[in-house]
Specification:
Oligomer: single chain
Distance between the termini: 63 Å
Radius of gyration: 35 Å
Number of helices: 29
Structural class: alpha+beta
Helix content: 25-40%
Largest sheet: 7 strands, mixed
Shape: globular
Length: 885
RNA sequence: GCGGACGUGGCGAAAUCGGUAGACGCUGGGGUCUUAAACACCCUUUCCUUUGGAGUACGGGUUCAAGUCCCGUCGUCCGCACCA
């Protein structure tokens, strides 16, 4: 008998299935909902998935053992562009591609032995799912949470589609290479900005979320407090006698030297129509790229409109109004005043256009002088005002801003305004493979919601991707419908929803996945919220913010209870699985040797032999090494072989995220086939803390596998042991209690690497223990229980060998006997002047005075004291003793 | 530029309250078993000028005691970024 995961893992999975142990049930037990971010069905699972789902599985299995009714579901985030791209490139239908990928990935996931309730599985492209999404959309439309407005988008004129910012590379469409145009289209928006303040404030309550994520969301929402006021204009066109601006620095208002408006500002648009020079400048502004570098290097440009505005505190002062390329229409009012003395960007602009630079204040002790750059005081700096609002005390920082707002309000100049950076969420996509937006455009009735009875608005199957653009646009029988209101000829909305909508409520759908309504009140009330959500930090902003908004919108429309407006009680962001990569871009040759380009396409982790020469590591193809009969374990032989075959050498690069393009992907399939799922699970939980990246190494996988085999053999041996009881039985019982306490703490704290380390330690202890057979069997039973969340198949094997009743998966989590956790005696280190010099073992409860006596009698202490009395003697009971000489 | 996190052996890392720095694992070295190997098991692996000394990026400080707290410097990583 040996450890044979290939056989036993399948058997235990079948046993769990038969017993239906993972089916989530509403009952009297407290519930626990653990969810990992659901995958996009790309076709293959990767090690990142394995790590993500294993973490969730450890939590789910642990909580189940602790007596919770656990919900641990799985589904597919199945809409999106890759399916359409596949259809365009290879023919076929996005639907077929997607469902076949789902089948492949499910087949790869099942052997991992995850405790998932597969009866709740769904894909977001199932009409049963997106039909309910459409129903909610209609409710949200009725509630005013969705609206239509014109918005500027990136338009690819060749592919005839809207592109996301990430799909625009150097101003060109990523696929067509065509120059992208900025087009104004009427699109649908969620009114998320209405919730800016609430979404920001509620972050404080998310104490079980990573601080990092909360900070990122707060920055994204971007709250600022400032003054909004109107300049009166001079020589402006009719209807533009006022110009509203927003500023967070009203305290520098007396340093104003110009005003600037966005190229998209209504005034600029008006001028554009009448003045070709403005039109040319505005067109130039709109062409600018949106990438970070483009913005970084873009020169500040302005066009003097000839219009003037009067300073609100001195009508005699007139400031020029520029159209400027750096002013954004969708922040504030799309217009600013410039204070070059105290804002670097304004300073550059003023310098370029020879505008005055009047300072408002100088550093305390400093004199007014020509500035070479804007003076922006630090928080700690003290300043001297040169111009200040009459009667206002001199202040700096936030105080100055606040009192300047109050001052201006009292003088009737504008009002204090809180602004957010967060903009409404545009959800329209001119794409086929997404959830259809359930509205109809009627020439007489306008925009008409589809009748709920007609839901789901199904995607038509008979579409082709041979022409650019959205196939829904040229599908007459789908597109042309009767108006739900008047019955006249109308057109269906052909835009589909952003896939982020799909993922903004799937967690709620899992609570009643097959219901004929989006959610079911009792189920949502029982299962919500998600107690533990686990996923990648790359979703820290968009997905998580949209979900938080959506839960609120669902509550407002009656689809979620009030307690679920923050749907994720705890969030954990896990690190990636990385792997070294085989750097074929560098051709390493001995001096004087000719180089040839390398053409090896098979440098995948499972195909190579690695070895080290000096500080550098190299990889060779396993097949070639074997064919040549070279000793794989001999670095020297490998090195000679490498030098002979000058094209075979590949330098090993640093460990980076696994990706196809780097050819450093370790396929979970091949690992499971070779070692079994438990080895893969054990490995991804060990070594690195869960929130950090973990490096996949062949030696680490090998070691994991060996350890599990060792545990199996140990269980086998202990099961048959007839050794009589010994004095070590009590010692082992204590070690067992300690292992329970520490592994439990590790799992509870998401410190799986520590739990794994404790299990290694406990195994070593048990192997070396001189305890009797019965004592060892008791310890080994606990071992099986402690192992079961992480390596459940092996745990069942061990449980079975020791005669455990039923399945260890269904056994209660072991409790550590508190009495056994307390040691009778403690070993205290003795420090002399803070350095450890000796130790002393004393009974646990020995009084400090008695400990002192013993310490002073210690040889090392006597020697160090050399007959003198210690200056100070510090005894920290149960911890340490420090003798100060 | 703004915001955040982090810096510990050859490597991944532990050290929960300020209290024995390096648990556990990998790698390397040595050994037992074997004709030999594989497997397994055992020992060893922070550094040095080793009766001892130094050491948690660097420089200071607080303390009986600092990886942990405070001040400063350097470095790495991440997020946002023409946001008025």
């Amino acid at each position: 008998m040996t450890y044979d995961p290939a056989v036993t893992e399948a058997r235990w999975q079948a046993a769990w299935d038969t017993a239906g142990v993972f089916t989530a049930k509403r009952d009297a037990r407290p519930k626990y909902y653990v969810l990992e971010m659901f995958p996009y069905p790309s076709g293959r699972i990767h090690m990142g998935h394995v790590r993500n789902y294993t973490m969730g599985d450890v939590i789910a299995r642990y909580k189940a053992s602790c007596g919770f009714s656990v919900l641990h579901p799985m589904g597919w985030d199945a809409f999106g562009m890759p399916a359409e791209n596949a259809a365009i490139e290879r023919g076929g239908h996005p639907k077929d591609w997607t469902y076949s990928n789902i089948a492949d990935m499910r087949a790869q996931m099942k052997p991992l032995g995850l405790s998932i309730d597969w009866s709740r599985e769904f894909a977001t492209c199932d009409p049963e799912y997106y039909g309910q999404q459409q129903a909610m959309f209609l409710d949200m439309l009725a509630a005013g949470l969705v609206y239509r407005k014109a918005a500027v988008v990136n338009w690819d004129p060749v592919d005839m589609t809207v592109l996301a910012n990430e799909q625009v590379i150097d101003g060109r469409g990523w696929r067509s290479g065509a120059l992208v145009e900025r087009r104004e289209l009427t699109q649908w928006f969620f009114r998320i900005s209405e919730y800016s303040g609430e979404l920001l404030a509620a972050l404080d309550g998310l104490t079980d979320w990573p601080e990092k994520v909360r900070v990122m969301q707060a920055n994204w929402i971007g709250k600022s407090r400032g003054l909004q006021f109107a300049f009166s204009t001079v020589d402006a066109p009719e209807g533009f006698d006022r110009l509203e601006v927003y500023t967070t620095r009203p305290d520098t208002l007396l340093g104003a030297s110009f005003a600037a408006i966005s190229a998209d500002h209504p005034l600029a648009k008006h001028l554009e129509r009448h003045d070709p020079a403005v039109a040319a400048f505005v067109a130039e502004c709109r062409r600018g790229g949106t990438s970070a570098e483009a913005i970084e290097t873009a020169e500040k440009m302005g066009y003097d409109t000839g219009i003037r505005v009067r300073h609100p505190f001195d009508a005699a002062v007139e400031l020029p109004v520029y159209v400027a390329n750096f002013v954004l229409m969708d922040y504030g009012t799309g217009a600013i005043f410039g204070c070059p003395a105290h804002d670097q960007r304004d300073f550059e602009f003023a310098t370029k256009y020879a505008l005055p630079i009047p300072p408002v204040f100088v550093a305390e002790g400093g004199e007014e002088a020509a500035l070479t750059e804007a003076y922006v005081p630090m928080k700690s700096d003290r300043v001297r005002y040169l111009r200040s609002f009459a009667g206002l005390p001199v202040q700096t920082g936030d105080e100055a801003v606040t009192s300047a707002i109050t001052f201006c309000e009292e003088k009737g100049v504008g009002r204090g305004v809180t602004n957010y950076r967060l903009r409404d969420w545009g959800l329209s996509r001119q794409r086929y493979w997404g959830c259809p937006i359930p509205v109809v455009h009627c020439p007489t009735c306008g925009v008409v919601p589809e009748a709920k009875a007609n839901l789901p608005v199904r995607l038509p199957d008979d579409v082709t991707f041979d022409k650019p653009g959205n196939p829904l646009d040229r599908h007459p029988t789908w597109r042309d419908v009767a108006c739900p209101k008047c019955g006249g000829a109308a057109r269906r909305e052909t835009d589909t929803m952003d896939t982020f909508v799909d993922s903004s409520w799937y967690y709620a759908r899992f609570t009643a996945p097959h219901a004929l309504t989006p959610t079911v009140a009792e189920d949502a009330a029982y299962w919500m919220n998600v107690d533990q959500y686990i996923g990648g930090v790359e979703h820290a902003i968009l997905h998580l913010l949209y979900s938080r908004f959506f839960a609120r919108a669902m509550h407002k429309t009656g689809h979620l209870p009030a307690k679920a407006i923050e749907p994720f009680n705890a969030l954990f962001t896990q690190g990636m699985v990385t792997h070294e990569f085989y750097d074929r871009s560098v051709n390493l040759t001995a001096p004087g040797e000719a180089t040839e380009p390398m053409r090896y396409e098979h440098f995948l982790p499972e195909n190579v032999v690695t070895f080290t020469v000096g500080d550098e590591r190299f990889a060779l193809l396993k097949k070639e090494v074997r064919d040549a009969g070279v000793d794989e374990s001999n670095p020297g032989a490998l090195q000679s072989f490498m030098i002979e075959g000058r094209n075979r050498r590949v330098r090993i690069g640093p460990s980076i995220k696994m990706s196809k393009s780097k050819k450093n992907v370790v396929d979970p399939d091949s690992i499971i086939a070779r070692y079994g799922a438990d080895t893969a699970r054990w490995f991804v939980m060990s070594d690195s803390p869960a929130e950090r990246d973990v490096e996949w190494t062949a030696s680490g996988a090998e070691a994991a596998s060996k350890h599990l085999a060792r545990v199996w053999r140990l269980a086998d041996e202990i099961a048959q042991s007839v050794a009589p009881a010994t004095d070590d039985d009590a010692v082992l019982a204590r070690a067992t209690a300690k292992a329970i306490a520490e592994v439990t703490a590790g799992i509870e704290g998401f410190a799986f690497n520590k739990a794994v380390a404790k299990l290694y330690e406990f195994t070593n202890t048990l192997m070396r223990s001189g305890a009797g057979g019965d004592a060892k069997r008791r310890a080994m039973v606990v071992m099986a229980q402690l192992l079961s969340p992480i390596v459940p198949h092996l745990a069942e094997d061990v449980w079975g060998m020791l005669g455990g009743a039923g399945l260890v998966t269904q056994a209660a989590w072991p409790l550590a006997d508190p009495a056994l956790l307390v040691e009778d005696s403690v070993t205290l280190p003795i420090q002399i002047n803070g350095k450890r010099r000796a130790e002393i073992t004393v009974p646990k409860d020995m009084p400090a005075a008695e400990v002192e006596k013993r310490v002073l009698a210690d040889d090392a202490v006597i020697k160090a004291l050399a007959g003198l009395a210690p200056k100070k003697l510090i005894v920290v009971p149960g911890r340490i003793v420090n003798v100060v000489i």
